[in-house]
Design goal:
With 104 residues, the protein is mainly alpha-helical. It is built from 6 helices and no strands. The longest helix has 13 residues, at 79-91.
């Protein structure tokens, strides 16, 4: 599933948890269902705390959740820069340890 919007994140959460509704996702995240509805309608967006929870649940970096939310809330003129950030995050080798730094 492509994660391009906050709604995509919510759809992925529905799939991840094997539930059928946003209400059930809200229960899993332990947040009000109105919050999920607000995210889906673009009236508000996941906070940093929510990004961590969503990222862990989906196995993606929380930074990706935050960038997706930023794309959704940004004015059209600013979205290209955020999309470039999303591309950098999704291209990163998540799950692998970076090489150790050597101090000489």
């Amino acid at each position: 599933m492509k994660l391009k919007t906050t709604a995509d994140l919510l759809d992925a959460m529905v799939e991840r948890y094997g539930v059928e509704s946003d209400r059930q996702v809200a229960e899993k995240l332990e947040i009000p269902q109105a919050t999920i509805s607000s995210w889906r309608r673009g009236r508000s967006f996941p906070t940093e705390v929510h990004a961590v929870v969503i990222g862990r649940a989906l196995g993606i970096p929380p930074a990706l959740v935050l960038v997706i939310a930023a794309i959704d809330r940004a004015p059209a003129r600013d979205r290209a820069a955020w999309r470039a950030d999303r591309a950098h995050i999704t291209a990163a080798p998540w799950g692998r340890r970076p090489p150790a730094l050597r101090v000489s």
